[in-house]
Each structure stands twice: as C-alpha cells, then as structure tokens.
Amino acid sequence: MRKILVVDDEADVRLLFEQRFRREIREGIFSFSFTFSGEEALAYLEQEPHYSEVVLILSDINMPGMSGLELLRLIKKDHPIPPPLVMMITAYADAGSYDTAMKLGANDFLSKPLDFATLRQKLLLLNTT
Amino acid sequence: MHCYLPIKALMLLALVCAIRAGMAQPGTSKAVYLDKMPPAGIVLDNGWKFQAGDDEQWARPNINDRNWQPINPTLPPRQLPQVRQAGIGWLRLRFRVGPELQRHALILSIFQYAASEVYLNGQLLRQYGVVSTIPVLVRAYWPNGEPIELPLADEGEQVLAVRVAYWPPLSAFNEFFAPTFFQPRLNGLQQMEQNFKQEAKYKVADMLLFGALLLLSTLHIAFYAYNPNQQANFYFALYTLAEACAFFCTGFLDDVGRHGLRLGMDIVSYASLQIGSVLAVRALYSFFYMRVGRIYYALWIANIFSLLLLMFGQGLSWYPTVGFMLLVTAEQLRITLGALRQAKRAAGIIALGFGIAFVLLLTFATLSALRSEILHQEVLGIPLHTMLTFSAFLSPVLAISLFLACRFALDSRLLMIKLAQVRRLSAQATAQQEEKQQLLAQQNELLEQQVQQRTAALQQTLSNLQATQQQLIQSEKMASLGELTAGIAHEIQNPLNFVNNFAEVGVDLLTELKAGPLLSLADRERKSAEELVDDLSQNLEKITYHGKRADSIVKGMLEHSRASRGERQPTDLNALADEYLRLAYHGLRAKHKDFNATLTTDFDKNLGLVELVPQEIGRVLLNLINNAFYAVQQRQRLGQPGYRPEVWVATKRLTNGQVVVWVKDNGMGIPDVIRQKIFHPFFTTKPPGEGTGLGLSLSYDIITKGHGGTITVRTKPGEYTEFAVSLPVSQEHVQAQTLSYSI
Questions:
Q1: Who's near B252: CB < 8 A, 6+ residues apart?
Q2: Which biological process terms from the Gene Ontology are attached to this UniProt entry (chain A) (predicted)?
C-alpha cells in the first residue's frame, strides 16, 4: 500500500480525495494523509514511520505561510535518500512557476482544476513501478 | 561818401573863396557906384564902415561917418575881432545907383551869422533876430537871403545902415560853421529867379537822396528782420539811415532861422556823414565775412576825434572831415580790393559802385579846381556839379544795395532749390514710409495667418493629446479592470472546482448506490428509491454542466492575467489573417449551413514579416472576424431587400513603421452608447451562452499590452463597423512606443 501525502490549505480537499479514490482506498491500493500547510507537512514527515511510508507528495503551490515551492525545496534538500516523489499542483499554470518547480526537482506538474482521471492513471502507474 | 560833402556846403565854400578874391580890391571912402548888374548879382562887400556902440541916430543917412572904420562884413566873424569886441555896433554903406540899374527893380538879400536891423536911408527895412547891447540877449537869425525890395531915393547917394550884434556862441566853434558875418547882396529879378531855381534844385537833390536812402534803409531793415543771420543788411540799413539823416539836415538847413538850431543841424549832418561812413565799413566787413579788427575800432576813435576837431578846431576848416573821409575811403578800398582778390561773390558790384563814385568825385574835384565854370553848366536843366555829386553819392550805396539784393535773390533762389529738394526728399521719404508700412502690414497679415495656422495646429495637437489622454485613462481603467477580473476569476476558480468535483463525485456515488445497496431493497421501495437517485443524478449533472460553463468563463477571464505564453517571431501577417478568416468562415458555416457572405481581402504585398505572437494575434483576428460574421448574420436576419453580407480584411504597411490590419463588415454597426463599452470585460450583446463578453477585452489586452499596438473602431449604426489593429513592425518600435506613452 502506497502512502500519499496531500498538502493543500483547502480542508475540503481531504473529503474530495477520499471520495474520488474511495475504491482504491477501500481496495488498499493507496492510502492518503492530509496536511493543510507546508509547515504541517514537514512536521509530519519528521515523524519516523511516516517518512518511510510516504512515497508521493502532492502539494499545492499557493498556500498561506510556506509555499509549495519552498516545501519542495526543503524536502529535496532534507530528505535526499530515498527521494520521495513530489507532484506540484497549481491554479497558476504559468511558465515561471513550472520552470522553478522543475528546477527544484519536482517530478510532475499538475494544474487545477485537477483532472482526477489523469491523476488516477499517474498514481496507478506509480504503483506498478 | 567818397570825400563827399553836402552840396550846399561845397557851394558856400566856393562863395568864400570868391569873397576873398574880392577883398583884394582897394577900398575907398567914397560911395560905391553901382552901374551894372553882373549875371551873378552884386555882393555888397566893399565900402562898408563900422562903428562900435549903439545909437539910433546912426541909422539916418546924413550923419557924419568919416571917422568910422572901414570894414568888410562879409568876412567870417573870426576875422572881424573889432565886431566881436564891441558886441554891438553899426555898419554903414553909401552907394549910388547908375541910370541903367535904376530902370530895374533892385532886390536886397541878406545872409548873416548874427542879429541885425537893416535901415535904408534911415528907414527900417527888416529886423533879423534880436539885437541887444546885452550879449546874452542877442538872438542870431538866418534870413536865408529873403528878397527885400529896395525903395531907393530918387537920386544921389543912398545909405544902408545896419545895427548888428555879434552872437557870442559862435566864437567857440570852427569858423567853418560860420563862413560870413554879414553878407548883403543886390540882385535883379533875373538873379533872384536863378537863385531860387538853384536853391530848389539843391533841395530836390537833397530830398531825393534823403528819400532814396531812407527807402533803402527801410528795405534792408526789412531784409534783416526776415533774415537776422545776414547782419550786413543791418549795418547797411544803419549806414543808409545815417546818410539819410545827413541829407535831411543839409536839405532843411537853410529853412531854419534860429542859429542855435541851425548850428546843431549842421553839426549833426557832418556827424551823421562820418558815422555813416564807419557803418559802411562795418557793413563791408559783414558783406565779405571779414573779422572786425583793430582798424575798425581805430576808425571809431578817429571819427570822434575828427568830429571834435571839426566842431571846435580853429582854422582847420573842414579838413578833419576830409581827412577822416580819406581814411575811411582807404579802408573801404582795402576791404573791397581784398574781396576782389579773393574773388568773393559779387564783390565786383561794390567795387564798381566805389569806382564810379571815385571817378565822378575826381572829375568834380578836378573841374572845381581848374574849370569851375563848367560845373555850373546845365545838362537837361540840372547843373553838372549836382549831377556829378548826386551820382557819386548814390552809386556806392546803390551798388551795395544791389549787391545785398543780389545776395538775397540768390539766397532765396537757393532756398527755393533747397525747398524743392526737401520736398522731393520728403515725398520720397513719405513714399518709402508708406512702402514700409505696406510691407509691415503684409508681414503682419502673414504673421497673423501663421499664428492662426499654428493655433489651429496646436488646437489639433491639443485635441489629439486629449484624445490620447482619454485613451490612456481608458486603457488604465481597462488594465485595472483586467487585473480585477483575473483576481476574481482566480478566487472563483477554487470553489468552482470543488462544486464541479463534488458534483461529479456525487454522480459516481449515486451510480454506486444504484448498483450496490439499492438492489437489496424490496422492489417497490427500490423503484421509488431509484427514481429519487435518478433525479439526484440529474441535478448533479445540471450542477456539473453549469459548473463547467462557469469554469469556461473563469478560464477566459484568466487569459487576461496570463503572461504571454508564446514567443514573438517574424510572422507573415497576411497569411495569418487569411488563415483565420477561412477558419472563422468555415466554423460558422459548420453551425449555420444557410449562411453565406462575400469575403474580400486586400493584402499589402509589401507588408513583410511582422514580429508578433502568432497564436495571440490569431486569436484577436478570430475574435474580430467572428464578430464581423455575427454582425452581418444579424443584419441578414432583418431581411432587408438587396442586402448582401460582406466582410473585408485588409493589411497595409505604413511609413511610420507600423502595420495595420482592418476587419470591416457591413453589418449592424455599433450604437454610440455601446461603442464606449465594447472593450470592457463581460460586455456582450450576444444572448447568454453565446459569448462571454471577454473576446474584445482580451483582444484589447493582447494588442495594447502584449504588442504595444492600438486597436480602434469606426462604425455607423445600421451600415458598417471597421476595426483597425495597428502593430509595430519590430520590437524596437514597441519599446519606443511604450517609452513615449510613459512620458
């Protein structure tokens, strides 16, 4: 079972993900953890069992406090081995933030509104590897 | 003026000379016998006896006068000391008249510088002046030879007795002023007539000279008054006035009986003569513009000195005057000759005047010295001496007057010429002035026109500026509106995502519900539950549908805020426009099969490549062309007869480095109220669902912000709409454009 950490300041994201992926969760393919800020995400990852469990981090870029890009930078810096996959999600799908995210080592770049079908494909692809 | 003296004086002088000659004859105590009347008359200067004292008996003819002293009373008083010592005395003359003379009327004339009572044969004939034993009371009188008829006793000896008194003031003066003491003359009628005639001629000559000189004086005073710069006129006027005065005094001298006054007039005549001659010298100085020097002042001193000598110098006769006149003449000669040498203007006239006078006087002097009888001959009834002297006196005066008149005439002619010149010049000046004024007026007009042109240009510029300013404000508004729109869109996007997502998930869940748990229900309950689930599913689908609709609006709004996604690249704008025109047309034809429109393109072959973002400009063109098609479609629906929808697309490269793309249609046109809002976001005239109201707003942003160009619209409601998009050809122009806007 792959654990996926979703970082978004919108609380309803949790409900949406749990409903969208209810079948996968029910079948034990994925398990989701949710934090509502970059700081919270980092704190979560500090806890020993969590870090090793999490294989993918889905993070919004625009958040109050620490931005998604900052979070990306810190994760890539503090946790080099094994490298967690990080996918960035943003409503502002502009070239600037895309370039920055890629430079910081993001594994993928998704734009809002999230196309859950595509996301599911990507996650399932992740699961097989 | 040259050695000139009043005529009368000259004649008197001649008289004295004659008397002296007569005195040479030896006197006798016998009675004087007069048998013939000579042509010149008889001067009774012979046979007189004198007795000092006063006795009335001495008038009687028969008293004894043998012891009386012989005397010639016609001598000057100075030569008769016995008379002066006596103060008063008696003269007696015994004479006989021959038979020839007795037949004629005899007339006695007395000339005297004394007071006298004349008795003939004891009978008082005349009393001249006041004879008194007291010298102070004596009043001398000049009878001027008035005719006295002699009532002779029939025969024998006649006795002329004269009670005579000496006039004391005479002793102070030069004897020249009193050439005789007592001079009786006997004349016939013929002689009297002759004498009167002569007297009249002298007087006429004097008066003529006086009048002429006075006239000249007045004339030249007038000249001087008119032109005070010509001082010569002034001095000449004074000179002629003095001469006139001299001739006046001389002319009326013999008409004055009282000797005091007569003596005064006599002296005045000489003084005037001399002063006049000095003034003549002064006038000459002025004529020839010579400096007044020592000689002139010396002449004045000599003048005073010679006058004093003339009046009081004893035995000098008139030589002081003669000497002085010689002096003055010499100076006048010097001045004139000097002027002649320097060839001064009209000096010849004066020289000629002097020359004539000199020659005439020389002739006169020569004749009087050698052949004086010739002088008395008459030409045309005028004695030669009068003619000579008259002309001699007048010629220099006339010459000078002529000279001055000449100068005056010359000056005035010169003035006339100068006046003409001045008039011509002033006319020229006036003409030039007018010309200048005209030129000035023309220039003024030109300037006015230029000012008006400039003002108009400025007005144009001002209105352009105002329009630009309006545009700037508008674009500023639009920019902020765009940003606001983007912000709003972004904020709406997230909740909208949730709405959509949850709606979708809801549908999934309901599908799951229908497929799973719902099947376990009893049929009847399951049926009604399925109906409810279907309704819910339908609602959720509606939510999704409208959510998507909102999403597409939000996406459109977000395009505003999105930075340029494409790269600028040199693009064939003609090809781009053509491509999008076809795309739009076919897109529309796909939806509305019955739609048809004429497409006209007019592409500038020299347009060249333009640096732009093809996707964005394509989007703008598509927008505009779609709008054009929409407009003609709308108008077509009105069913106007003969209406033919048409859309034009044209391009052109301007000289200022811009390219323009026109998109024109003959559709509905845009009303004024709407035209103001067409570039505002969300403004649309299309029904809901057909347009977002963001097309033109986005186009505006792309053209102005993205490419530094402009987009404008011209329209006439019901006829046409024309959009013009102008773009700078290259990036440099964009920067320049942006810069110029920022200023």
A1: B265
A2: phosphorelay signal transduction system
Domain B444-561: CATH class, spelled out: mainly alpha
Is residue B150 within 8 Å of residue B95, measured between CB atoms? Answer: no
CB within 8 Å: A112 and B497: yes
| Out of A19, A91, A95, closest to residue B494 by CB | A91
Return the pLDDT at A82.
66
Enumerate the residues of chain A whose CB falls inside 8 A of the CB of residue B488.
none
Chain B residues contacting A, CB < 8 Å? 490, 493-494, 496-498, 500-502, 504-505, 508-509, 551, 562-563, 565
Which residue did the predictor score with more confidence, B16 or B361? Answer: B361
Residues of A whose CB is below 8 A from B562: 94
The CA distance from A106 to B301, in Å, is 143
Candidates 1.10.2020.10, 3.40.50.720, 2.60.120.260, 3.30.390.50; CATH matching B30-187? 2.60.120.260
Do B378 and B435 contact (CB within 8 A), yes or no? no
Is pLDDT above 50 for B343? yes
Residue B666 pLDDT > 60: yes
Among A16, A17, A60, A61, pick the best mutation site for testing chain B contact (most B Cβ within 10 A). Answer: A16
What is the nearest CA distance from B483 to chain A, expressed in angstroms? 14
Which of B483, B492, B493, B497 best tests the A interface by mutation, with the highest count of A CBs <10 A?
B497
Q: Are B128 and B96 in contact (CB under 8 A)?
A: no
Cα of B525 to nearest chain A Cα, Å: 26
Q: Where are the domains of chain B?
A: 30-187, 444-561, 569-742
Dihedral sign computed on CA atoms, order A74, A77, A81, A82:
positive
Helix (H) or strand (E) holding B270: helix B259-287
Q: Which domains does chain A have, with CATH numbers?
A: 2-128 (3.40.50.2300)
CB of A20 within 8 Å of a chain B CB? The answer is: yes
pLDDT, tens digit (0-9, with 9 covering 90-100), for B501-553:
899 889 988 888 888 888 888 888 888 888 899 999 999 999 988 888 888 87
ipTM: 0.81
What's this model's pTM, rounded to 2 decimal places? 0.49
E-state strands within B545-603: 569-572, 598-602
- The answer on pLDDT for B134 being more than 90 is no
Q: Which pLDDT value is given to residue B731?
A: 58
Which residue, B162, B182, B166, is CA-closest to B59? B162
Residue appearing with tokens 């000046």: B429
CB contact under 8 A, B563 and A112: no
Could you tell me if A19 lies within 8 Å of chain B, comparing CB atoms? Answer: yes
Give the architecture (CATH level 2) of B569-742: 2-Layer Sandwich (3.30)
Task: Look at residue A28 and tell me whether its pLDDT is greater than 60.
Answer: yes
- Give the residue-averaged pLDDT of B17-39: 60
Q: Is it the case that residue B490 has pLDDT exceeding 70?
A: yes
**Mean pLDDT, to the nearest integer, of B633-648?**
89
CB contact under 8 A, A113 and B500: yes
Nearest 5°: CA angle at A119, between A118 and A125? 90
Which residues of chain A lie closer than 8 angstroms to B509, CB-CB?
A: 19
B335 exposed, middle or buried (CB, 10 Å; 0-12, 13-18, 19+)? buried
| Cβ within 8 Å, pair A19-B505 | yes
